[in-house]
Amino acid sequence: MADDKVLIFDTTLRDGEQSPGVALNVEEKLEIARALERMRVDFIEAGFPASSPGDFESVTAIAREVRGSVIAGLARAVQNDVDSCWEAVKHAAQPRIHVFLSSSDIQIMHQLEKGREEVLEMARTQVARAAKYCSDVEFSPMDATRSEPAYVYQMLTECIDAGATTVNIPDTVGYAIPEEFAQFIRNIQENVPNIHKARISVHCHNDLGLATANSLAAVQVGVRQVETCVNGIGERAGNASLEEVVMAIKTRPDFFHLGTNIDTTQIHRTSRLVSQLTGMSVQPNKAVVGANSFRHQSGIHQHGVTKMRQTFEIMDPKDIGHPRGTVLVLNKNSGRHGLKARLDELGYEVTNQELDHLFGAFKELADKKGEIDDRDLDALVSGERRSSRTSTSWTCCRSPAATTSSPRRRSASSALTARWRRRPRRAPVPWTRHTRR
Length: 437
Ligand code: KIV
Ligand code: ZN
Known about the structure:
Layout: E1 7-10, H1 26-38, E2 43-47, H2 53-65, E3 70-76, H3 79-89, E4 95-102, H4 105-112, H5 116-133, E5 137-142, H6 149-162, E6 166-171, H7 178-191, E7 199-204, H8 211-220, E8 225-228, H9 242-251, H10 253-256, H11 267-278, E9 295-296, H12 299-307, E10 327-328, H13 336-346, H14 352-369, H15 374-387, H16 407-422
Parallel strand pairs: 1-2, 1-8, 2-3, 3-4, 4-5, 5-6, 6-7, 7-8, 9-10
Helix pairs in contact: 1-2, 1-11, 2-3, 3-5, 5-6, 6-7, 7-8, 8-9, 12-13, 14-15
Zinc ion (ZN) binds near residues 203 and 205.
């Protein structure tokens, strides 16, 4: 593997589906898996086959159909889980069995009600069982960040000896702080003698809003597999979000000097698909895929982006496949530049004097209404035209040549104005937009 690539292990279909209230059927999971493959995700964790017959069926169907990504299934370190995981993923072009078991005392004692030795034995035995089926085995010591480090080192050492080819370090309860997490990874690199035989991965939860930061801190110290979910969904506050991790690496090559295999132009549509099928809406201010990610509201920002998009945007909306791109949100904070730019986009050509009038009316309306949309602008322009009937500079779709730039045009425009003047006051207004040439 090239060391300058961070591999993306997407668990939207497993940890993501563990989001409270989410349940996907086989067809929905297949649809998301196809989108993930299209996005060129390296690994798709398709589900937890032993957890239900439906999940077994989904993982099997994905393994049969999706050929471009490695297909992983999750298994507890118990024989039945490992066997059933293999039965489901064995159809994949590139299968992976992902075995996990708690390593923290709090979970070992209070959840598993076992001792450390017994747990170690379970991990070793089931990783070895998985390795007999499949050459690609991942092992995760669950709750690693709240475990005694020496115990984690021992567990990882024994699991790598038993055949684990990837060791994943989960921050299961989102407890870690970036600097501390990076140091934990360094300690693993230094204290697990056979670590060079396995790839290190991280799986960070977002309970403190640090999942992406923790994942990137791990990348900085050499981790080359990151586990993510689209839109950051997952248990409780969710997992590190795919789009944040991938776009951070893409946006800051000067800092990371790394890349991913992801086709980032698929991010926006995949985010929408996942949101639609899971029923989990994306908060408007969500990084990268939130509805406001490329919308600018303040007059100062609008002035900047109309001159040069990069003044207030660090990502190109095209890079994530955003269909609309940069948007100026018009409201009471907007300035003349923002209003003028939107009027231009809508096809209205206005003089400075007309803009002055419109801007006053626009501010008044914005104070009352909040956001001003395109239909409001149409109405403002119509109102301005009605109130300044002598104006000759509005262009009209019925006479695109009518501008004030030449005597002939001026007279055509005056004729139109005269005609309108003769209209009864309530006559429908013939003005509409036309595309600016
Ligand atoms: O959060 C976690 O620890 C997990 C494991 C199964 C990897 O999801
Ligand atoms: Zn998890």
